Amino acid sequence: MAAEPQSAIPIVDFSVFGVHKDNIDDTSEEAHNLGAEILRAFSSVGFVYLRNHGIPESKVEDVQKVSETFFELPKEKKQNYSRLSDGSNHGWIALERERLNPARAAADLKEAFNVPVLNNTKVKWPNDEAPGFESKVGELYNQCIKLTFRVLHAVSLGMDLKDKNWLLDCHKGIGKHGNATTMRILYYPPITNNNLVKPGQVRCGEHSDYGTITLLFQDEFGGLEVLPLNSDYIPAPYIPGCVLVNIGDLMMRWTADKLISTKHRVLVPEEELKRRRARRSIAFFVHPDDDVMVECLDGSNKYPAVTGGEYLKQRFAATYEY
Question: Hey, which of 35, 75, 127, 266 would disulfide with 157, CB 3.0 to 4.6 Å?
Answer without folding.
Answer: 35
